[in-house]
Specification:
This protein is of the alpha/beta class and 307 residues long. It is 43% helix and 21% strand. The chain folds into three domains: 80 residues, Arc Repressor Mutant, subunit A (Orthogonal Bundle); 112 residues, Periplasmic binding protein-like II (D-Maltodextrin-Binding Protein, domain 2, 3-Layer(aba) Sandwich); 102 residues, D-Maltodextrin-Binding Protein, domain 2 (3-Layer(aba) Sandwich). The strands form three sheets. Strands 3, 4, 5, 6, 7, 10, 11 and 12 form an eight-stranded mixed beta sheet that branches. Helix 5 links the parallel strand 3 and strand 4. Helix 1 crosses helix 3 and helix 5 crosses helix 10. The protein is elongated.
Length: 307
């Protein structure tokens, strides 16, 4: 068994196509197929069903691939560790963001990072929290930006900034005449929320201390929630950074949430065995340039991140 063989099956597991996998690995299709077949013979199991199109991973093949991804990850970590000692900052970076953070960070982050670190091949994906945790454990991504705490012992959380929640209230809603709204003044029957699976939905329910609501529609994005309130009344709860995307007319519908003030923590998360310290600081440094200084974690303002 060789590391090269493991890289081949990991690549084929992603593409489900021998030709595409061979091209990505820089070998001919017969070579890739023969090397994978040799590995299957050594392990005495079938990893891929070649009769299916696209290629199907067998149940035991899924287990083999999960282990192979971690082995390949650690091998790359060794290379990265040596590169870091040589002050090199290049290579691939797979970064994930949750959908309720990505629209506010990516427009400013991408040009800053690409200009500052041209040697890094940046790959970005939007993922929900449960997918981020799974992909980190499988070494499918390098790091992610999402709401914390996660309370996952094998994942390291590095707080980046703290973001307040504000209420977006229809002019016809009962509390529209108030400049500030207390949590116990927010009627659940008028609340519009994100669809199941969004972490912001859970955060909203936690801050409102309510398990149910009476809305007849659950939106897939914060922008859609705002439009629903504009057309149908009621209210929703949005993160502070979304305010910049509102029109002046819509900003008049914002109300502060007080007693207690509602805030979420946004962190950069990595596997605890991740070693590319300079790359972590590079990502965090670009985020610091995008987010208002008043929101940045105090420790991040003063100190570099140490792994």
């Amino acid at each position: 068994m060789t590391l090269q063989q493991l890289e081949y099956i990991v690549t084929l597991g992603k593409t489900r196509h021998f030709g595409q996998a061979a091209e990505l690995c820089g070998v001919t299709q017969p070579t890739l197929s023969a090397m994978i077949r040799k590995l299957e013979e050594e392990l005495n199991c079938t990893i891929f069903d070649r009769k299916a199109h696209p290629v199907v991973i067998t149940p035991i093949g899924e287990e083999v691939l999960n282990q192979a991804r971690v082995v390949v990850f650690h091998a790359r970590q060794l290379v990265e560790h040596v590169a870091a000692r040589k002050e090199s900052l290049d290579g691939p970076l797979a970064l994930a963001l949750i959908p309720t953070v990505a629209p506010y960070l990516l427009p400013g982050f991408i040009p800053r990072f690409s200009t500052g670190y041209p040697g890094v091949a940046l790959k970005i994906a939007e993922m929900r929290t449960e997918s981020v945790i799974r992909e980190l454990r499988l070494a499918g991504i390098d790091m992610a930006i999402l709401a914390t705490p996660l309370n996952e012992p094998d994942i390291l959380e590095i707080p980046l900034y703290y973001e307040k929640f504000v209420a977006y209230v229809s002019p016809g809603a009962p509390m529209s005449g108030e400049e500030e709204i207390q949590l116990d003044q927010m009627p659940p029957e008028l609340l519009w929320v994100l669809e199941e699976g969004h972490c912001l939905r859970n955060q909203v329910f936690n801050l409102c201390d309510r398990k149910t609501h009476r809305s007849t529609y659950e939106a897939g994005s914060i922008e859609t929630l705002v439009r629903i309130v504009d057309r149908n009344g009621g209210y929703t709860v949005i993160p502070e950074l979304h305010i910049q995307l509102l029109s002046d007319k819509q900003k008049a519908n914002l109300r502060r949430i007080v007693r207690p003030e509602a805030t979420r923590e946004i962190s950069l998360v990595i596997r605890r065995d991740y070693v590319r310290e300079r790359l972590v600081n590079a990502v965090a440094g670009c985020i610091k340039q995008v987010v208002p200084d008043s929101m940045i974690d105090d420790r991040l303002k003063k100190f570099a991140i140490r792994l």
